[in-house]
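Thread amino acids onto this structure.
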């Protein structure tokens, strides 16, 4: 049990410190995929020489960041239709006639008939989160609470959390507010706390819920009190933490004229469209039309997103050139790979920049696709995408390849055996970062 708790703590540290803040459906894998990765690791470890590498903080962040950037690029490719060549870049895209009011993306599957009807939406109210605004107190004055151990309870999502802290002799209002701000935010219970100033030397502790809207007929998302707390009470009233300055509310909109309500500004319609409400309708009766883009427009958007993901990876690798020269090896490999497809890609409107990044001339691309036989030229883009995909898999499997290291000994050809050497180096970096 203790071992499992330690592992969980290490990976929680990894996810909050290094990993991107969002995950997707493409971060889940089938057993067959995991088995394939395992077999690739066995083969890699079997052939790997023994070496000594730098395990300092900068190297750890570089290696872990490199792996995560490769994962993000792979997920970008997967999100554009799938990883199979027949599905690649075939994702349908949604449009909104008023992006300022509603933005949309298509997340469903086309029915057999291939027809997805459009619809009209009018936004009459946005969902809001709850805000508790504390009392503005003189920042540099001594706090008006007796030095002692204090506590208060925050109830959210039907769970109650007790926060305990000490007030010491001579502490100011601002010092206590800042300490509570860190305490509440770092607890990660669905609230953030920050300090506001009024310009007159006063400061206030503000609590904001991450969630919005009203659920289960409740009029609040969270409550703050110290009526039944275990330590000394009085800090909630003194700091004003119980004052609800903004009540949570639901989003209200008309869908094809029918009134609808939801607790969030981000939701799905019929498991087909994912909508984000950005503002209310500027005029009464003002609607936005949501539907599917044409095949050509969807393809152009997919290729643009592919280039965007590729460029983000190149920029991230370029940031390490000064501190980790071997990242130049990776950039060189990516450049040679893309240049191999340069003739085919340039005919479709791709532009190769000196920095190694790519750009797309949309009009040239669409004209090339519309020309007779233009669709056949898309094989060049798919071949390029497949090469990028294979490269991301290679980097994810062994990011240590691009770290400065000294080879100590080569294994005996034909007589070696599988060891966890390479993966142990990478795993050790995760544990060293935590410890």
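Threaded sequence (435 positions):
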């Amino acid at each position: 049990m203790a071992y499992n708790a330690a592992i969980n703590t290490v990976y929680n540290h990894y996810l909050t410190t290094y990993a991107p803040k969002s995950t997707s459906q493409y971060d889940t894998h089938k057993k067959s995929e995991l088995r394939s990765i395992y077999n690739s690791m066995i083969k890699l470890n079997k052939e790997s020489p023994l070496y000594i590498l730098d395990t300092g903080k900068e190297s750890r962040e570089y290696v872990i960041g490199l792996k995560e950037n490769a994962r993000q690029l792979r997920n970008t490719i997967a999100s554009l239709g799938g990883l199979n060549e027949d599905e690649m870049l075939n994702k349908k895209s949604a449009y909104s006639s008023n992006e300022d009011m509603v933005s949309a993306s298509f997340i469903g599957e086309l029915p057999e008939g291939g027809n997805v009807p459009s619809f009209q939406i009018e936004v009459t109210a946005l969902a809001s989160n709850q805000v508790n605004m504390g009392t503005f107190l003189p920042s540099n004055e001594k706090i008006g609470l007796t030095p002692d151990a204090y506590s208060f309870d925050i109830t959210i999502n039907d769970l109650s959390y007790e926060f305990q802290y000490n007030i010491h002799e001579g502490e100011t209002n601002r010092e206590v507010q800042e300490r509570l701000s860190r305490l509440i935010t770092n607890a990660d219970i669905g609230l953030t706390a920050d300090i506001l100033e009024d310009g007159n030397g006063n400061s206030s502790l503000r609590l904001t819920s991450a969630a919005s809207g009203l659920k289960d007929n409740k009029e609040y998302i969270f409550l703050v009190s110290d009526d039944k707390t275990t330590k000394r009470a009085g800090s909630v009233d003194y700091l004003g933490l119980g004052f609800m300055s903004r009540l949570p509310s639901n989003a209200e909109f008309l869908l094809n004229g029918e009134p609808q309500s939801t607790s969030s500004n981000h939701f799905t319609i019929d498991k087909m469209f994912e909508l984000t409400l950005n503002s209310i309708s500027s005029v009464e009766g003002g609607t936005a039309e949501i539907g599917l883009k044409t095949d050509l427009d969807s393809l152009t958007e997919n290729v643009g997103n592919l280039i965007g993901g590729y460029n983000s990876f190149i920029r991230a690798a370029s940031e390490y050139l000064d501190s980790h020269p071997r990242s130049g090896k990776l950039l060189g490999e990516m450049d040679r790979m893309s240049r191999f497809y340069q003739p085919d890609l340039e005919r479709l409107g791709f532009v190769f920049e000196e920095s190694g990044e790519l750009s797309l001339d949309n009009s040239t691309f669409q004209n090339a696709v519309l020309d007779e036989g233009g669709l056949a030229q898309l094989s060049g883009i798919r071949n390029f995408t497949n090469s990028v995909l294979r490269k991301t898999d290679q980097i994810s499997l062994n990011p240590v390849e691009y770290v400065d290291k000294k080879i100590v000994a080569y294994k005996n050809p034909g007589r070696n055996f599988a060891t966890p050497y390479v993966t142990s180096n990478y795993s050790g970096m995760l544990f060293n970062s935590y410890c």
